[in-house]
Amino acid sequence: MTDSMMTIGEMCESYGVTPRTLRFYEAKELIFPIREGQKRLFIKSDRARLKLILQGKRFGFSLEEIRQLLNLYSLGDQQTTQLTKTYELGLERLRDMETQREELTEAIADLRDRLQWGETVLADRGVKLAAE
Amino acid sequence: MTDSMMTIGEMCESYGVTPRTLRFYEAKELIFPIREGQKRLFIKSDRARLKLILQGKRFGFSLEEIRQLLNLYSLGDQQTTQLTKTYELGLERLRDMETQREELTEAIADLRDRLQWGETVLADRGVKLAAE
DNA sequence: CCTCCACCTTACGTTAACGTCAACCAAAGG
DNA sequence: CCTTTGGTTGACGTTAACGTAAGGTGGAGG
Using CA atoms in the order B70, B74, B76, B79, what is the torsion angle rounded to 10 degrees? Predict the structure, then answer.
């Protein structure tokens, strides 16, 4: 109704996933769409979470790890103990991601060198590459 | 013999993997250890490849994608056509990795904010965090 | 000679993350 | 009223990336 509500189909269209995927994520408690009768309805926060899920997957996190991280994004009225654990978990993840970024930076530089080399080899063999 | 040769056990020790993993990678044609009778022997280039494999996995690449990438790291006397394809594949991966790096940078900043916020909340509740 | 150890192959088991299929409901349109 | 459209819940299938268990080999040491 209000355009803040989306059906499962619209969600799939928007984010390039299948219904099965969204239902699966719900079953794994990564998202919590509300129900109108039988049907699922997704609101803004669901979309925010989904974005984070898809991003997390690109970084190589498992769905379970992502589920933990998502709690960081909906911190509210939890017990202090739980909150502290979540915080520390977040710190760990942050270190992970920073490490990963450094490695990625190196790997990119490396790959770039290889490609440069490949270019010259191909040039030597008289191959014209699509200029870009 | 020469310390440039390593047994499967030594490899596992060095890189924190299981024998099964190395045999699996060989079966998938990601590494090509030489044989002394039955036994596998790993030389320097095998170790270089293994490093790249493990790194690639951290970036979320599948073994099959990694296998493609590895060809870039052993370009030699292949046909020019194949070489060109490999080169273009490498370019694609490079774009992927650069994109991933940007996203990762954003995600890190984001997570950092959350943690900062979490810190203040915990501080308000009188929780002392391990200073670092 | 026997045993242990490190390695081997073959083959079936496992987990994550969905895909696919069957059978069902409910609102909307012709 | 019937059919289409878009959703639902099981339940079983699939792929990647290994784990694991069973049984076999070859050399070193007691």
Answer: -10
